[in-house]
Design goal:
single chain, alpha/beta, sialyltransferase cstii, chain A, 2 domains, seven-stranded parallel sheet, six-stranded mixed sheet, 11 helices, 17 strands
Amino acid sequence: MFFSEAEAFVDFLRINSDKKIYVWGCGASGELVGQVLNQNGILWNGYYDNFIAPGTVLNEKIVFGPADFSNDEAAIIIISPLHYHGIKQQLNSYGVSDNRMIWMENPDFLNSLVNMMGFKSQRIHTVQEFRDIFHGESCFVVGSGPSLRLTDLEKIGEKGFRSFVCNFFHQCYDKTDFRPNYHVTIDKVLLRQVAEDRNALAQILSSCEYMFVRQDSAMFNLRDEPEMDNMIYLKCAYPKTLDRLEFSSDCSKYVCTGINVGFVMLQLAVFMGFQKIYLIGMDHTASRIQNPDGTVEEHSEIVDHAGIFGDYGKFSELWEPTPLYMTTRGYEAAKLYADTHGIEIYNATRGGQLEVFPRVDFDELMK
């Protein structure tokens, strides 16, 4: 079964409060579902996940693995990922009937869950301040792919380009004097880890002008602390359909997550008015790729991130397979928007497999 509105979903779970309730999937949508259950006083029993290490704790609940699954015929399973078909088939094979499962048939349903959470904050700085402030200028959007080089970053800085970076970028600061203008992170697992490591968070905030984070994350709990004044909260909207992603024309209202943080950085760059946007470190590869049918391809020869960032620590253990086909759709949406609004996006990455945007040679660009 599935729901279109958050209120009906919560009401159904309240009516069935005598049953055990589990959430299958610990990604961004799974964390959101858990937050909604907790906020609404729904008693539930934990998570299941095919990839996260059993025993991990999320939203104060234990994560179990498939090997722990017991088919309690009275239990309700909420399948949180948008790509639910593979998990639904998996649960069917365990003997779980469809009428005991709730799945995300309508991706827009997740937006109603976000709205139910009611994330609000009185902030000194808001996204609206950044509208068109760099109209007609050029910038770099920096990914974390294995092709990224410190020397390239330093050239970007020397040439005076404004830049966006993401995720674990701060872990290369001991190796370079390059500092970005903006640090963007939307991965809820990573934000939870950074929120717990106040030294890392302080390093990020002090090394950039502003840090952009999703509001429905652990970072929201820090919103009123004075040292967080240069942290900007983004409302992240889930795609209304998985066939074609939306590129937000107004980041002050929301950004479309589109799976990949690079997609969000592009939306912010366009919102700020940049007319020429260059990508680097966008290799568009992954060691574990999730296909549309839910199956996973393993590519052990692929390195997931540049060596300059070192070890990703606990985060690497919580990393779910990457749906590259969805990342591609995000970039296609960005190109469509750019082509129809007089914006140029070029891929200056050394190698990689991203071919949505026209290529430019980084070394020629830096001459």
